[in-house]
Inverse folding.
């Protein structure tokens, strides 16, 4: 008689060997614990490149923030890549022990490089505005002078949709109305896409001179060097080192009151109208009318700050509003929202040769 369900057995010596078994029998592997690696790069506005290497030949390239799950435990090395206009994290490469069932974070902070920082003013509407105020001082009241800056207009700004335009920098009468209000200014007009340099003898009269570069000289999203010089008799306006316009000044001197210097705005009848939207870099005020040779020799490089005749110098290189001439004319940001910021300019300036 056959008995079902009993496996055959062979006797080998005193040991019984079973030749079959139930399905599913055998050794079960224990699950391997995994880890999580986070790459966290700042500022979030840049997609910083990186490479992560780890155990068992693991290697991955990426950009910006990323979370990497299901990683094998072991030593991982994160190497940061380069970003134009920024200094990378220090150290540039870091190794960490990544343990099972844990999260390990690699942090990296990029900073704007020296020679590549500029002031960025956002003036789109009254919910986001920005300008810089520099307190009045006798040093800021020269009778002969030069104003220089690199500018990149990025939008129409607020309140300057006419031939005068929005203020790049000016020492102007506040809370007033009329014409020729203040002492001097450089403005950019979104209407004609050009710059204007004005010097005033008597506010609210025709006793002033204003010179303007040709229409279209400074379009939106283009970067140009602008300079206004005044020797007591003639106002001259230069764009990228080229003389664009001159005008005679036939009065006895420049008007000065107790007005502050404003960078990026004016405060006329409607508060802080004529607000410039864009980038301003390497802003300089001299106590003499610079020659075209002096302008062109130094406009594309950063000053040391101790040049003779330099009254004020805002290079913005520290990501701040310090007067780098050492004369103490530091600026104060006035803003709604994120109206005042610092960015990489379109033109990077090396140090001037000695």
């Amino acid at each position: 008689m056959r008995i079902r369900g009993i496996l055959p057995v062979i006797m080998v010596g005193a040991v019984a060997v079973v030749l079959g078994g139930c399905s599913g029998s055998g050794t079960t592997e224990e699950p391997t614990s995994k880890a999580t690696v986070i790459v966290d790069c700042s500022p979030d506005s840049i997609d910083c490149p990186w490479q992560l290497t780890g155990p068992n030949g693991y290697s991955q390239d990426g950009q910006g923030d990323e979370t990497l799950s299901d990683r094998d435990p072991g030593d991982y090395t994160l190497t940061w890549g380069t970003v134009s206009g920024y200094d990378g994290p220090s150290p540039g490469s870091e190794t960490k022990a990544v343990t099972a069932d844990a999260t390990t974070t690699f942090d990296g902070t990029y900073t704007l490089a020296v020679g590549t920082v500029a002031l960025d003013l956002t003036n789109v509407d009254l919910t986001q505005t920005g300008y810089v105020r520099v307190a009045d001082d006798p040093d800021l009241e020269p009778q002969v002078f030069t104003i220089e800056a690199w500018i990149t207009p990025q939008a129409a700004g607020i309140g300057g949709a006419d031939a005068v335009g929005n203020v790049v920098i000016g020492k102007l009468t506040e809370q007033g109305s009329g014409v020729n209000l203040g002492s001097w200014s450089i403005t950019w007009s979104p209407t004609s896409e050009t710059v204007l340099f004005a010097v005033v003898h008597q506010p609210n009269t025709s006793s002033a001179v204003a010179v303007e570069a040709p229409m279209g000289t400074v379009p939106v999203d283009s970067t140009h060097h602008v300079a206004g010089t005044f020797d007591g008799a003639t106002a001259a306006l230069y764009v990228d080192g080229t003389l664009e316009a001159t005008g005679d000044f036939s009065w006895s001197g420049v008007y000065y009151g107790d007005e502050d210097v404003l960078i990026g705005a004016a405060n006329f009848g409607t508060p802080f109208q004529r607000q410039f939207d864009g980038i301003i870099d390497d802003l300089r005020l001299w106590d003499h009318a610079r020659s075209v040779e002096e302008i062109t020799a130094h406009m594309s490089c950063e000053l040391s700050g101790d040049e003779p005749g330099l009254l004020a110098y805002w290079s913005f290189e520290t990501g701040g509003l310090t007067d780098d001439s050492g004369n103490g004319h530091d600026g104060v940001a006035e803003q709604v929202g994120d109206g005042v910021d610092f960015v990489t300019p379109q033109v990077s300036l090396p140090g001037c040769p000695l």
